[in-house]
Amino acid sequence: MEKLVSLTIDGKQVTVPAGTLIVNAAKKIGIDIPVFCYHPKMEPVGMCRQCMVEVGRSVIDRATGQPVLDEDGTPKVQFGAKLETACTTPVSEGMVVIGTSEKVARGRKDILEFLLTSHPLDCPICDKGGECPLQNLTLRYGPGQSRFIYDEKMHLAKHYPLSELIYLDRERCIQCGRCVRFQTNIVDDPVIGFYNRGRSIQIISNSEPGFDSYFSGNTTDICPVGALTTADFRFQARPWELCSTASICTHCPVGCNLTINLRREARLDGDLVIKRILPRQNESVNEIWICDKGRFGYHYTESKQRLTQPLVRREGELVAIGWDEVLSYVAENFAHAGKNLLALASGRLSNEDLFNLSELSSGLGGKSALYTHMAGGDLVAQVGLGEGTNLSDLSKDTVILVVASDLEEEAPIWWLRVKQAVERGVSLIVANPRHTKLDHHASMIVHYPYGSEATTILAMINAISAKQNFPKAPKFQQGGEVVKTAAETISTAANLIVFYGSEGMGLEASQALAQACANLLVVTNHTHKINNGLIAVWPRANDQGGWELGYRPLPNLKEAFQQFESIYIAGADPVGDNPSLTDAVQDAGFVVVQDLFLTETAKLADVVLPVQPFTEREGTFTSGERRVQRFYPASIHPEYKPDYAIIAAISKLLGLNVEETPLRIFNRLAEKVPAFKGLSYRQLAQVGEQWPIIGRNDLYYGGSSYANAQGLGIHLSLPAQIPSLAWPQVPELNLPEGAILAVPITILYDHGQTIYHSQLLHQRIPPAHIALHPDDAQRLNIPDGTLVHFVLDGAPVEARFQINEKVPAGVALVPRSLGMPISAPVPIDIQVV
Ligand code: SF4
Ligand code: SF4
Ligand code: FES
Q1: pLDDT per residue as tens digits for the range 179-235
Q2: In this structure, which ligand is nearest to the CA of 203?
Q3: Is the CB of 419 under 6 A from ligand 2?
Q4: Does residue 176 line the site of ligand 1, with CB under 6 A?
Q5: CA 783 vs CA 140, 480, 810, 832: distances in Å
Q6: What is the DSSP annotation of 769-791?
Q7: Atom 3 in ligand 3: which residue has the minimum CA distance?
Q8: 25, 266, 515, 622: which could form a disulfide with 545 (CB 3.0–4.6 Å)?
Q9: Distance separating alpha carbons of residues 460 and 319, to the nearest angstrom
Q10: 287 - beta bridge partners?
Q11: Which of 163-177, 478-492, 680-694 has the lowest average pLDDT?
Q12: Contact call for residues 791 and 776 (beta carbons, < 8 A)
């Protein structure tokens, strides 16, 4: 049982766990003690002294160990001679804290006066003005006048780019150290630090390129002054001009909760324009953080290259056409195709879009398929995370296994949360053919050769089975010593969470890996329980939603395009990803593409339908953790239509009974799909108390992340039955002697349509490149940086040659979505251009 302690703060009684800091105990009862250097997500450092309070403690009789009583029978309280910092002082039984006395007011005033001796008085032109802790606290507690001579203020660099994303105003820094501690302690990217001493102390970046971290934007949220600002938002708007909408990030399967800030702008006739994206608190998903891709990668939604009207092919050209006419034309062709209709959609679409699309295709007797390079969502639907699982809340006897995923590149906030779980005592096993950043935090690292993903997990199962009489995987051995040790650790874990990715794999191999991982969970009895289960590290936000709704990938797209009479492609660009599909799409009977942009696939289509991005409409996504979360419309553009509405309009023309509004679609979905049974929009919008308490009325405590008032989302339920074991068919990689095996990997910043329109990120997006081990480079006699060419899936590719000692020998790492069509491992012949 946790020991509880009762104390009084400003006359209010509070009971909190022993060890709680005064500042947090006060927060729990609605008392805001001003802070600068303290942040509830970080260890206290007591640097700024802004939080000073009077602290009285019970006088204890040394002989009896009992409190000494006053004449009136109440415990005698003795106050210290000096003020104490509320952010470093833990509570004690009978403590009396006073934050409203003259003495405290004087202390706060003096600290503010001291801070303002160096800080410029440029609030009217500061981006933080209006939501600045220093400004707010100065108005509330600060001196009306300074005794300091104005001309003696420090003058330091004002627009210093720590990177192309983050700017530093050195004069404004109050040396609280939050940014440095966030980078060092929270995200393990110690790329900024203090330099110099005294009043000349400055924040510097010590990485090349500057501020080289995927999480840099979070420092601008927690900086308590306008010292750190984003290149995206600085000088763009004043905080009081902004309105806000709750949303969900669409860039990866984590499903980080966002707030979109907008402002009406005259240049767009009073339309709302997105000015910035900030985190929205969800302690079960992203806490109060987001990665830089989520923060800066929204510009595609407002790109001038977006499609604005439907297009139809006339005499070989795509020409504009009205909505009514185009929808009738599409419906006519779909009616003709009947069961020969293929609907191909990606996890960029919401649950409502995907549900309507499958209603349309099944209504005609056609087929729906998921556009993805990764499989196994059917198994995640059966042995995914137990309801209520929270990665921040795992016990020390939990094991996390991450296999075939470079988690920081693929799902940065999961990387962060796994790292934090390890710091709280969880054991981490990383299984991957090459070194990834997660290795730093692993208690065990299993390196296997590419192609042995599933067999490595099966070997773990057999190592466990050998001792515990579990069912054995056929054919596979127990594995080497590391595999056996990993298996031993897993076999003794109270809880097991397995993340699997698609590093080095295509559909077939990732399905086999998912099956092996599911089996590992089943044989060790780690399914259908809180804090246990399988998570797929999908490429898109709603891939898991697609699997839950019955979508499955097609093994051979070329064949499928030849086989079906009509093809309806939504949110996918198969030709852009793989030009060898050009002929198949060109030769297909009738092709409709529904997208934001005129993609390579759209250029070949018979009809192109423009859609709204997630910022202009509402719906739900199912995250990789199987959490269904709502997003809301930020800017409204009635001239565009959301996917579900376009699909509904076509369905109506076909005489199908399909709902037209997201609420009704979701209700129908919840009736029909067992995992969603009982869910409603209202439930998804429910919120509960979260810790730390953050919000707009006290920005000095948590920073400028938004509190969550629009929904924490709900985990999908698991089927009652634990699936019976089925052993996977593991595809074999047959590599010719001495050949180089090209393997696909995923990187955070790529050329994808939803990222490339954010110009700010262009410096982070690498050119097409492949990476090989130095021994292979020497054998091939190719120097670092050389332009090389090779053939992938029949298409000639040019790329920069990189030498990287972390790449296993005999392998070329080929990043996905950089214009190199790779869907599965394949031998390549590399030639210098
Ligand atoms: S830049 Fe901001 S967060 Fe960093 S030390 Fe200065 S005031 Fe604190
Ligand atoms: S971790 Fe994923 S979901 Fe979260 S902000 Fe980054 S890209 Fe978006
Ligand atoms: S010393 Fe407590 S907030 Fe800085």
Answers
A1: 999 999 999 999 999 999 888 899 999 999 999 999 999 999 999 999 999 999 999
A2: 1
A3: no
A4: yes
A5: 63, 35, 16, 10
A6: EEEE-HHHHHHHT--TT-EEEEE
A7: 35
A8: 622
A9: 58
A10: 282
A11: 478-492
A12: no
